[in-house]
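hey so i finally got around to running both of the ones u sent me last week. sorry it took forever, my laptop kept dying halfway thru and i had to restart like 3 times lol. anyway pasting them below in the order u listed, first the sequence line then the structure token line for each. didnt double check formatting much so if smth looks off just lmk and ill redo it

first one:
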Amino acid sequence: MSTSPHHVKDESLAAQGALRIEWADMQMPVLASIRQRFATEQPLKGARVGACLHVTSETANLMRTLKAGGADIVLCASNPLSTQDDVAAALVKEYGVRTYAIKGEDDATYYDHINACVDHRPHITMDDGADVIGVLHAERPDMASDIIGGTEETTTGVIRLKALEAEGGLMFPVMAVNDANTKHMFDNRYGTGQSTLDGVIRATNILIAGTVVCVAGYGWCGRGLAMRLKGHGADVVVLEVDPLRALEAVMDGFRVMTVAEAAKVARLFITATGDIHVLRKEHFEAMQDGAIVCNTGHFNVEIDIPALEALAVKRRTIREYVEEFTLADGRRIYLLAEGRLVNLSAAEGHPASVMDMSFANQALSAEYLVGHHAELQKKVYVVPAEIDAEIARLKLATMKVAIDTLTAEQAAYLASWNQGT
């Protein structure tokens, strides 16, 4: 695969994809300002980047920014169903980015594409779920010698990388882009909340108002999703294993239950935990006829799909992205988007305006790695606070929002200890 300069579905879709990229770019002013600076300063000149991200119009604008900064890029998909084929074609034909991504690609092709990314011998890896780093560490450690560092976009990926670090196996430093405040507080909450609801509605066209909806997980993604569902009139039930998050959900006005309790009352189930088998055989057996299950976590393991398949006596695709499983007693359970990220599989993913901040973090973290890799250890690092603050400042400026600054007296007061009552 790596001997081919690219692998996309249909290059004739490039013009359509370019329009989609242009539309997204108009809503990504922070990234555009970084791209303008990068074009002048060339901070990534000569750096090979191996990026494994969702191939969407927003990602295309990140690739344009990295290329403007001098990077030599190979891009592959981080999920078999999230690729926008017209965008992939435009990246190849209009922007000269080597891209390996086809919506609906099988597992073998998916990993062929990741290996094409690894074969680029990147200096910087850029992951959305840690699959490139996973392949490098598990199968191709000999290819890691040129790597100065990596970036990781997702909660799931950061969890994997911290586990690798704890085992002493991480071979280079990684910037946890997901943990930047201007990423997870906005992308995970507002982006996931809106785009997941969008994916569910596009796939099913069900009425959310009045529906009992179970949200598994009350991290930043789950919070945002519960908030959006409540706004649409849903009766939201939250599942949690963390007592503090569960308490927060209760205080936010949601019912909190065990999975076993929720399985009996909810019609729609959405997992957002990053963990395996949240919905299992015993839960499917308790669900009502017509229950809908889907996932907005990174990997398609949160729903135990093999268990659902084993319970079914019949299955069929009833509409695009909706598969019906009929159980022995006649009850039907509907699985959306093969259990993959429903917001990217059945919809278009996060709005461009929120990805503006996430991808600004990616671009500036890559620049940071080029300038500071010699002083970094083989650890997972939080994005420096100054980068976070600069992205927030730029975003506010593009929104025409002005804020105050501390007076000298106020700054001195906050820095003192002896000015009490």
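and the second one:
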Amino acid sequence: MNPYVISQAPLVLGFALLLIVASFRPHQKESLSGLISIVALGATAVCMWFWPPDVTDYFGGAIHVTPVGRVLAYICLALTAGAMLLSDEYLNKIHVTAVDWRMVVLAVGMGMVNLCLAGDLPTLFIAYELVSIPSYLLAGFSHRDPRSNEAGMKYLLLGAFSSVLFLLGLSFVYGATGETNLLAIHDKLAAAVSTGAAADLVLAKVGLALILGAVFFKVGVAPFHTWLPDVYQGSNLASLAVIASPVKVAVFGMLGMLLWGAFEPLADLWKPVLLCGAAISAVMGNLQGIRQTSMKRLVAFSAVVNAGFILLGIMAHSATVVIFYLGSYGIMSLGTWAAFMAMGTPKADVDELSDLTGLGRNHKWLALAMTIILLSFAGIPLTSGFAAKFGVLLEALRPDMDTPRHTVQVLLLSVVGGLISFYFYFQIVRAMWIEKPESRGSKASPLVPELRWNYVFVLAMSVVVIISLGMFLRLPGL
């Protein structure tokens, strides 16, 4: 049997089993659906391990398996499994039907795997929508919360606009080349560039611009990021563990493979666009982040800043650095949501900075783990965040790298922006370790975290990976 079909079977079978569980136990508090989901994700990863090691095509090139795509798929599956583990008990706490939520996440998982392995335009669009549509549902899943309803609606409307741009861009590319296979599109564009076929290149460039706009909306690159803080603030933490971690990895990975593959002949167009997006993200993400007191909104603007660095890595055409950055960012993001879940009380989540006042005095290990994650976000040495950022800067400054004008200025701007980001990360550290509960007023009460085993396990694993990657793993050139 086709190895690709075998690898997708566990996700389909897991989805079917969840439907059965939902039919017989629709509103009960249970963990069976979580076990089924994690086993399905793990079985998919195991089946993918036995794929042929070289580049392989399935279904006439609709699925194009490359080493980069396979690694990105593994990262997405691992992060999704971590998010699924975090959801145990938390969904009961926020009064969300667990089995329904997990069915939606399995659909996202299937979309992310195929997004990393898409070999033609129809597969690319279907996988893109299979990631997008369930993500809208996840954002608004806490239907009893008005903020969640607002987040889901805002994400749906802007996401639909993004999908329209994406589909329109793919249509222009097809019109310019007459091909749907991504490798064939690359060959047609390369031939058009070499022969100077201006008409075909105009259509292709318009299509590429639309695709870039759609992806920038999806991943929150400034100035297309204005929806991101509202969606983060309204979504529950379990949904954010999916939307803000594996989904980001999959979409950024898709962008990198598209630009390095099908659109590589148009590098003179997309490299300046990525550079501009990185510069605006460094400025707007940091300046807007320093004014935040909401924990979720602060993390949202941190995501904007990190998106700028990822764009620089893609512009530098370094698959190793981009994969390392995406993996590091994914685990840092997952660890952040695990820490927020652990800091929450049995009836409420942490929301404002004031909720963390004095945490380091009463729960030192929890505060220490959160501090390490924040240091990694800030790019402090001996963390994976520092290694990832430093790797991006080195690759972009390589002497043999064909980079656009003003690349050095944008890199300096990103570094200065990183220094500014220390301020809003330090706000959280200060609240946990320095400020006293009474400094917030007489109404302040000590935080009583809900330290469930799954929160602690995912948080501890995130910290171990962050430190291990930062201290022991070395990227080429570092």
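quick thing i noticed on the 2nd:
Residues 148 and 234 are 4 Å apart (CA to CA).
anyway thats it, ttyl
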